[in-house]
Structures are given as structure tokens and as C-alpha cells.
Amino acid sequence: MQEQSSPAHTGSRGLTSAPTSRTSKYKSMKIPGWIFAIALILHGLISIFQNSLKNAPFPFEYEFLNILTFSILSVIFIIYMLILWNNSKSKSENFIEYLLKDLKYLTFPAGFIFASLSILNLKFINDYVGFISASLGIFGVMQKPSNNHISIVQNISSDAQSQRHERTRLLVDNLRSENYYSKINAIHGLASIADEWLSDSDIPEEQAHKNGQNIINILCEYVRSPFPLAQKAIILSTDTPPTDYAGDFFTDQATFREEQEVRRSIFDEISVRLHPLDEKEKRDYTSWHVFEFNFSKSTIFYPLNRLRFFNPNFRNSKFFGLADFSFSDFQGIPIFADTHYFGDASFSCAYFQGTALFSDSCFEKELNFQATTLKAGAIFESSIFKGSTIITPVLQDGQVFFEGAIFNCSSVHNFLNLNHPDMSKIDVKSVTLVGKRRYKRFEAKIPVNSRLYDPDSWDEKKQEYTRVSNPAE
């Protein structure tokens, strides 16, 4: 890999996180309020029934219970006031003014003051302080959050979302940089932000999905971005430079391999979040089945094997070098229509849950569909197969359509699946094509409604092959 100055691989937060706003320190008062209320009610009840408890045995004797509950209440009071003080600081407000904005914040301290009077054992008010402190505890619980409290929560939510947008902007800048490590960190960081949007319960679900989709669009846009060295995929995948190579072979090779890893990492992030839809065990990642993945018009020059895809759209994409999708899992309906494969293409042992769409595609070299599971069939209509083909899928349901497809008469084509004789098979028929010279005849078994063509019969003016067999039938 090309040597370059590189930051430590510390993750997206170390790379791009924005400064944390003070409003993010705000603490919810719901649980402390409930604890305070229960303590007030309990202490009040003890005061109300003090006459019955004065002669009770230890530890139910009134004096002991009164001191014990008041001690606990004092600790809760201190903690409660500290939280309120912290929240006032997070809003940069005066503590007293902050308390006066919400009646609920004063209710519990008032109840504590009345509870304190019970310790003084003043006969003329002792019969009432228990009732008052308990009533204030109940009243405090019944109070709804004020507009001040709601606005704080909204500000916190808004602040977190603003930070998320700012982090996204910084990460996109890193993704556009020339530094390999910055790009890798940016991809990890953007994926994490998409997870955060989906997990954000403070915004409507539709808005969360929209914001997450924006992140996916950024990643897909990078996949679709051009990369000039892609067309040299086969050459740069070798260890020895050609004698006539134009440019610095080893520099180009290092750049090429780095970009392969960068773009593959995008698919890795997507794949790990696409667990099978029927899988119910606990996930480590948020599911991305709610998103759309548009890779149309992409230039693919790196392996995409052993990955999960969900309704991927590769329409009009070009594949340089080996297009390796072996052992990958395609959920939904994958779109590979109008694609062009300049090197070998392998979908061996892949799993297609929906109908695989390969219509109007061109395979320049070998196509390997060996032991590929097609749960709902596939469509290769009007496609061109210039190299040899091994299309021996495991058909669980549906059919494979080749209507209008043409196969090179000089290549070997295999559609017979001997490993699964009990499964549905591709319906093939024998066809014969007479070559340019009458004595040269080509015979092959190809799918029904497809044809053989002579690669030497290309008409540049008509942009078509002129010697084509009748459809197999």
C-alpha cells in the first residue's frame, strides 16, 4: 500500500465529532421527582399516624422511623437540588429564576420544609405537617412538565440533531479527501450516524428514515463516482508491470488497491446491517432494510463476495476485472439489468431470494452461476454471452428466462445441473448455426427462445451480428 502520512485509526468520533453543547448535560427530573414524592408521602404518613406508632416496638417506634425517613429525605433533597442546579447551569440561567419557571420544582422542596418541622416536634403544628408534606408529594407527582421543561428537551434534541448534521458535513469532506485513512474513518462514521438517526426517538419515524437515507445516498454516490484506473483492473491486479505500461505502475497499483478497499468497506458497512429478515436474535447494529440502495451507473472493480444486499440497483453499471459476487446473499429483488461485464463474472454459491434481473446485459467473458440458489428464478432476456457460461443454479421456484438472449457459438455453455436432479431445470434445446464457410457448423444446447451467434459476423454499420441461429425450441 502506498506510504503516506496517516492519522491513527481511532474511529469517526475522534476524527470529526463536534464540541458537545452544554445543553446535552441536562438531566431528566422524572425519576428523582418520583423518588422525592414517595419519600415525602412515606414521611407524611408516619407523622399522621404518630400516635399509633409511639408505643410500637422497635424498629417501628415513631421517633426512630421519623428520624430515619427524614435522614433519607434529606439525602434525596440534596441530590434533587443538585440536579436542578446542574440543569440551570446547562441553560445558563440563574438558579432561583430557573426554579420559579416551574411550579413542580418548588413543590417538592416545600414538602421537605414541612417535613423538617416534624423533627422540631412542635405540638401546635405537628398534627398538620405530615398531612401537608404528603399532600405536596402527591401534588408534585400529578403536575405535568411545564413548557420550560418541554422546551429544554426540544433544545437538547435539536442540539443533538445539529451536531449530527455537522458531523456529517465534516465526514463528507473527509470522504472526498485523498487520504486513505480519512476515507475509511469517514465511511464508518457516516454509517454510525445513519444508525443514530434510526434510533432517535425524539423525531418522527418518517423524518428519521429520511435523514438516514440521506447518509445512504452519500455512500451510494461515492460508489457511483468515476475512478479512471478501474479500466486497468486486470493489469493492476498483476504483480508484474507490462513493458508498455504508460505511467508509474506501482504508484497506480497502490492507489488502485486502496480505492478497492475504500469502496468495498461501504458494502461491508451495509452488509453487516442487513441480517436476514427472519432472523430474530439480538442485533449489534440497526437494521437498514428501510433504505434504498442505488448503485446504478457505477464502476465496479473490486470483489463484492460474501456480502448481504437488499434490493440493490446496479442498473447500467460496468464491471472491470473479476465481478465476484460469490457466496453473497441477495434479499429482495436485485437489479443487474443493462450491465456490462468486461471480465469474468462469478455468482457461484450466491443466494437470490427474489427474481434476479439480468436482462439486456453483456458478458464479455465467463459467467459462473454454478450452485447459485434462485429462489424466485432469474431473467436474462436480450442479454449477450460472449464467453463460456456455467449456468447451473439450484432452482427452488420460478424459472430462468433467456428470451432474445444470444450465445457465442465458439464458447462452451453448460446448463445441466447434475448435483440437484430433483430440482427444476433450465429448459434447453439443441440448435445449429452454419458458419461463414458452409462446412463449418456449430451445435449447442442452449435455453429455449435463445440463439447462437457467430462472433465473426459483427456488422459495424448495423451494430449487430448478422449470422444468428433460429431460436432454440
Describe this protein with a few key phrases.
disordered N terminus, 473 residues, 24 strands, 42% helix, 5-stranded parallel beta sheet, alpha/beta, 12 helices, elongated, 7-stranded parallel beta sheet
Explain how this protein is built.
- It is elongated and about 120 Å long.
- Residues 1-26 and 145-157 have low confidence and may be disordered.
- The protein starts with 11 loop residues before the first helix and ends in an 8-residue tail after the last strand.
- By secondary structure, it is α/β, with parallel strands linked by helices.
- It contains 12 helices and 24 strands.
- It has helices at 12-16, 30-48, 50-53, 62-90, 95-100, 103-120, 123-142, 147-175, 180-199, 205-224, 233-236, 249-272; strands at residues 299-300, 308-310, 318-319, 323-324, 329-331, 340-341, 345-346, 351-352, 356-357, 362-363, 367-368, 373-374, 378-379, 384-385, 389-390, 394-395, 400-401, 406-408, 413-414, 428-434, 441-447, 451-453, 458-459, 464-465.
Arithmetic mean pLDDT? 82
> How is the biggest beta sheet arranged?
7 strands, parallel
Widest sheet: strand ordering: 1-3-6-10-14-18-22
Instruction: Provide a count of the helices.
Output: 12
Q: What's the N-to-C terminus distance? A: 53 Å
Instruction: Please provide the count of β strands.
Output: 24
Class computed from helices, strands and strand pairing: alpha/beta
